[in-house]
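Researcher: We plan to redesign the surface later, but first we want a full-length starting point. Tokens attached.
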């Protein structure tokens, strides 16, 4: 039975990280011109909304915001054992020539991001795709690196990182779970 091994971020830490990432996005892109945020379902969508709200507070501009479901683009669909529910991709703006910031909660192997890149490219050809994640836990299987990282958390493959958000009925916190159980 998995157990909570450590609580590594609370609400305040998550909020601080997202404000910092919003500032970094604005600085790197020289403002909001041609900028769009696309969250990867599910946690990335909630974080993208929070980043968009932070950008609005900083710049007074609403940037285009979308949601991406990458289920059908995954390369491990058959090997996952359980049937994955399909979500909805909701990108109501053209990504052509945009600077698209993909947003996800945890960067682990890179496979979800690879699927998201394929999905975005099916929608059009952005000028640039950047990646923002709340946590980077290491263990990459693909050469994918985030442009914006809330926190780097070295983990074991015997651990799981869970991002709990109020939008999903939890409290805002990030925990490391010990998958081997124990006391």
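Model: Full-length starting sequence:
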């Amino acid at each position: 039975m998995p157990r909570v091994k450590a609580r590594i971020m609370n609400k305040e830490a998550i909020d601080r990280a997202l404000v910092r990432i919003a500032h970094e996005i604005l600085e790197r892109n020289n403002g909001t011109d041609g900028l769009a945020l696309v969250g990867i379902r599910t946690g990335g969508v909630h974080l993208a909304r929070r980043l968009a709200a932070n950008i609005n507070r900083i710049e007074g501009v609403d940037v285009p915001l979308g949601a991406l479901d990458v289920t059908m683009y995954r390369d491990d669909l058959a090997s996952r054992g359980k049937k994955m529910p399909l979500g909805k991709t909701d990108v109501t703006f053209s990504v052509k020539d945009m600077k698209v910031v993909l947003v996800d909660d945890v960067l682990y192997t890179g496979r979800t991001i690879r699927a998201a890149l394929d999905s975005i490219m099916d929608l059009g050809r952005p000028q640039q795709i950047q990646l923002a994640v709340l946590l980077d836990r290491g263990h990459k299987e693909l050469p994918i690196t985030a442009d914006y990282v809330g926190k780097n958390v070295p983990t074991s493959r015997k651990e799981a990182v869970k991002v709990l958000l109020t939008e999903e009925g939890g409290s805002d916190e990030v925990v490391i779970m010990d998958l081997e159980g124990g006391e």
